Amino acid sequence: MPTRCAVIWPREEAGDEILHWGFMAGRLGAGGTLARPFLIGIRGAAPFDHETHQPVSRPSYDDTFVLLTPGAPPVVFAGATHAYQIDSKEAPDVNRDNRPDVGAIRPGRYLLRDLRTGGYPIFELTLPDGNKRIPAYRDTDHDGVISEDEMRRAEAARPDPVRPGEEIGSDGYYAVSVLMHTGFDAPPDSAHRSSIACQTCSLKWLTLLSATARPVGGLIDYVLVDAADLVPFGEERLRSAPQSPPAGVNVA
Hints:
The structure is a single chain. The chain contains 4 helices and 12 strands; from the N terminus they run H-E-E-E-E-E-E-E-H-E-E-E-E-H-E-H. It is of the alpha+beta class. The chain has one domain. The protein is globular. The strands form 2 sheets. It has an 8-stranded mixed β-sheet with strand order 3-2-1-12-5-6-10-11, with helices on both faces.
């Protein structure tokens, strides 16, 4: 069911976006003044939507990214945190039904590293410690939706002692080789325009991310969160909202 989510966005008052997103970043684990760029991925709500939606595997920028950079105003842009298709030969068959199961990385804290290869920006996504095995859900019934049952199954999964695979771990399913790259509107010569677990957005925004990350070694802290899970933070922010904006991007 959709959730009302108007409170996850800044108020219309001038300057409120700095305070608002700084507060949100603090609640999502950022500490003190940001040492490097901090990217929030909001799954299930396009920029400034007032209701959440069920993420569906399709080529659509219907999620939101918010880029926070020290000394700069927040930048809000559309992208996708979900897969594009329901089938791929590169996906594992976790339920052994002879049909590979496309995945979606789970909400959590990650690190993006600019690979600086090829003609277009592309980032590798890892856990904060550099681990490339990313906890993921799998669309085992191939309907393009990660259901609550599929989430629970992934979280309860254990390694198969007979047919072990690196996509399955002690606390759930995993995705490997996860990237953030150009999506369905990529230039014709781009090597990446689809996704089976990667994060995607338009080239314009990837170029901005790359330029923003360059002074700090090409790194960006990334937190993916379900839009509905931001609502309590938005309500808290409204109850305690100060009336004047700070000089830079600080987090609460």
